[in-house]
């Protein structure tokens, strides 16, 4: 009798484990790739070589990934709108000029769209995108969103007027040039705290992206969205890109031991 009882307990536990496993596998997780500079010449920790970027975009195309916009991601998360198969959101931070000269031709070649988070005050500076370049890309499947006025560590800014300039005024400036509403923010350095989040909401952003490694699921907090960073040129290999894309949580565990530079 006791033996039978143990047998049933084991069966119930096995069933519970199987259901949990199915639930985890079925939970739709969307990778948000995060690039900065795409450049064969610069040996910046933020750069991925143009050759490697090309190989990664080719991989996405050949494996039937469909690039999506932040609106599609949020419509899925908040309204349950369906996404295409194998969705991926490709993002770039800071608005480097090589996003136009090196990344944009590759994205066009593979029919992929992308989102670039702009530092409003740096537009037109040496090494950064100009408005004519932004406007050309805007007409060819590239979306532009906010990355503050001049890229401070937001949790360290203690003056609310300064936070308003970073989060609100920069948003208005971008909107005036882009002629659409800027709804998304990428936190500089992935840095935020609860006060920053409350202002991000107050100034009308629909969601905000961190550099916390991981994919995004419908149940996640839209003001602390995960991304999959793809940079650190010297350590970067295609295999690492592949691992990050498919197993972000495994890479997150590894990253706890080695804090990234961004
Ligand atoms: Zn940045």
From TrEMBL:
<dbReference type="Pfam" id="PF01522">
    <property type="entry name" value="Polysacc_deac_1"/>
</dbReference>
<keyword id="KW-0732">Signal</keyword>
<dbReference type="InterPro" id="IPR051398">
    <property type="entry name" value="Polysacch_Deacetylase"/>
</dbReference>
<dbReference type="GO" id="GO:0016810">
    <property type="term" value="F:hydrolase activity, acting on carbon-nitrogen (but not peptide) bonds"/>
</dbReference>
<dbReference type="GO" id="GO:0005975">
    <property type="term" value="P:carbohydrate metabolic process"/>
</dbReference>
<feature type="domain" description="NodB homology">
    <location>
        <begin position="86"/>
        <end position="262"/>
    </location>
</feature>
<protein>
    <submittedName>
        <fullName>Peptidoglycan/xylan/chitin deacetylase (PgdA/CDA1 family)</fullName>
    </submittedName>
</protein>
<dbReference type="InterPro" id="IPR011330">
    <property type="entry name" value="Glyco_hydro/deAcase_b/a-brl"/>
</dbReference>
<dbReference type="InterPro" id="IPR002509">
    <property type="entry name" value="NODB_dom"/>
</dbReference>
<dbReference type="GO" id="GO:0005576">
    <property type="term" value="C:extracellular region"/>
</dbReference>
């Amino acid at each position: 009798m006791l033996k039978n009882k143990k047998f049933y307990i084991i069966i119930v536990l096995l069933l519970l484990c199987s259901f949990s496993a199915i639930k985890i596998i079925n939970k739709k997780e969307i990778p948000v790739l995060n690039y900065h500079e795409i450049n064969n010449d610069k040996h910046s920790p933020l750069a991925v070589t143009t050759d490697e970027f090309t190989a990664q975009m080719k991989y996405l195309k050949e494996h039937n990934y469909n690039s999506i916009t932040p609106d599609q991601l949020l419509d899925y998360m908040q309204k349950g709108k369906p996404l295409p198969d194998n969705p991926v959101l490709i993002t770039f931070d800071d608005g480097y000029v090589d996003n136009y000269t090196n990344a944009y031709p590759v994205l066009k070649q593979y029919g992929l769209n992308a989102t670039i988070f702009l530092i409003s005050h740096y537009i037109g500076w040496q090494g950064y995108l100009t408005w004519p370049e932004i406007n050309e890309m805007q007409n060819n499947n590239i979306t532009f969103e906010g990355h503050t006025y001049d890229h401070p560590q937001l949790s360290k800014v203690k003056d609310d007027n300064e936070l308003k300039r970073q989060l609100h005024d920069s948003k208005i400036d971008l909107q005036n040039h882009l002629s659409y509403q800027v709804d998304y923010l990428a936190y500089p350095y992935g840095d935020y705290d609860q006060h920053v989040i409350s202002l991000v909401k107050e100034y009308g952003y629909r969601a905000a992206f961190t550099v916390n490694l991981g994919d995004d699921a419908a149940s996640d907090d839209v003001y602390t969205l995960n991304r999959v960073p793809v940079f650190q040129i010297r350590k970067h290999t295609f295999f690492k890109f592949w691992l990050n894309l498919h197993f972000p949580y495994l890479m997150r565990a590894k990253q706890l031991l080695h804090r990234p530079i961004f």
